[in-house]
């Protein structure tokens, strides 16, 4: 009987996960073709419109996360959410074990600029949303650094996953230097967010319907800031500072190495 109940629970979580992702897709289209169109015509100032879209995304993502929790698809807990909500003029960096890491973090942020990889700009469910939110395409390095500097000077927070893509199970994680380069260039502190998932779920290698036998639990732990002034030394080159900062960031995000 116990085994039957566990099997039934797993099948329900497959259904609940599929339903939630269907709602996510429908919500993305609704944001693109209804809500964002309304905001486009009602708010003429581009910056004000982008901030309103980002707030709308935060509310939508919070509802999505709660739907996944209430239906039993996942469990999650955010430790230190108040730190995220209070942050200004800093870079939020996080490890990236699952598909919904960005959603979980952004659900707590009324404002966040995000570096978005090229594939998202081609996704019909997300393209209109990321464009209207003013998210930053991760392509032209020089333009990227300039844009990040402009946003941070305005007091914005910038969300970056330094791995560049989701963690591959069994393969040692390697950080790209983008987050460290932006931090050194803009002299901005970094807020570290560490994410664990037990058991692993929505990884780069798995499909959404490949749910584990036990309900996945996401723990999002908001750590202290890395103070950039502790790394900047006028006697050394910026490239050396970037390497030192990136090495430290790697040790903080992956302490088990």
Structure explained in plain terms:
The protein has 257 residues and is α/β, with parallel strands linked by helices. The protein has one domain: Glycerol-3-phosphate (1)-acyltransferase (3-Layer(aba) Sandwich). It is 49% helix and 16% strand. It contains nine helices and seven strands. The chain has helices at residues 2-42, 46-71, 81-86, 101-106, 118-121, 127-132, 141-153, 178-186, 238-253; strands spanning 75-79, 90-94, 113-116, 136-137, 157-160, 189-198, 217-226. A seven-stranded mixed beta sheet has the order 1-7-6-2-5-3-4, with helices on both faces. The longest helix has 41 residues, at 2-42. The model has no long low-confidence stretch (mean pLDDT 91).
Number of strands: 7
Q: Could you say how many structural domains there are in total?
A: 1
List SSEs in N-to-C order.
Answer: HHEHEHEHHEHEHEEH
Biggest β-sheet strands, sense, barrel: 7 strands, mixed
Task: Output the radius of gyration.
Answer: 19 Å
Give the strand order of the largest sheet, numbering strands 1, 2, ... along the chain: 1-7-6-2-5-3-4
Separation of termini? 41 Å
Q: Note poorly predicted spans.
A: none
- According to CATH, what is the class? Alpha Beta
Q: How much is the average pLDDT?
A: 91
Provide a quick synopsis of the model.
The chain is of the alpha/beta class.
Tags for this entry?
alpha/beta, Glycerol-3-phosphate (1)-acyltransferase, 49% helix, globular
Q: Which secondary structure elements does this structure contain, and how are they paired or packed?
A:
Layout: H1 2-42, H2 46-71, E1 75-79, H3 81-86, E2 90-94, H4 101-106, E3 113-116, H5 118-121, H6 127-132, E4 136-137, H7 141-153, E5 157-160, H8 178-186, E6 189-198, E7 217-226, H9 238-253
Parallel strand pairs: 1-7, 2-5, 2-6, 3-4, 3-5
Antiparallel strand pairs: 6-7
Helix pairs in contact: 1-2, 7-8, 8-9
């Amino acid at each position: 009987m116990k085994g039957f109940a566990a099997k039934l629970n797993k099948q329900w979580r497959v259904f609940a996960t599929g339903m939630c992702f269907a709602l996510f897709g429908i919500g993305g289209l609704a944001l693109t073709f209804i809500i964002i169109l309304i905001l486009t015509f009602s708010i003429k100032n581009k910056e004000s419109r982008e901030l309103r879209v980002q707030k709308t995304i935060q509310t939508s993502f919070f509802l999505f996360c709660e739907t996944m929790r209430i239906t039993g698809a996942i469990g999650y807990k955010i430790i230190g959410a108040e730190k995220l909500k209070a942050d200004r003029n800093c870079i939020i960096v996080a490890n990236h074990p699952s598909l919904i890491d960005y959603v979980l973090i952004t659900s707590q942020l009324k404002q966040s600029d995000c570096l978005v990889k090229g594939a998202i700009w081609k996704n019909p469910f997300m393209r209109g949303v990321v464009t209207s939110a003013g998210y930053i395409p991760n392509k032209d390095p020089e333009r990227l650094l300039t844009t990040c500097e402009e946003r941070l000077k305005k007091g914005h927070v910038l969300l970056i996953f330094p791995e560049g893509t989701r963690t591959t199970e069994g393969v040692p994680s390697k950080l790209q230097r983008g987050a460290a380069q932006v931090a050194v260039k803009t002299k901005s502190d970094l807020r570290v967010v560490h994410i664990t998932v037990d058991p692993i779920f929505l990884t780069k290698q798995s499909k959404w319907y490949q749910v584990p036998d036990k309900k996945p639990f996401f723990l999002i732990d908001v750590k202290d800031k890395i103070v950039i002034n502790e790394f900047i030394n006028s006697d050394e080159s910026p490239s050396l500072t970037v390497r030192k900062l990136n090495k430290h960031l790697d040790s903080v995000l992956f302490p088990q190495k």
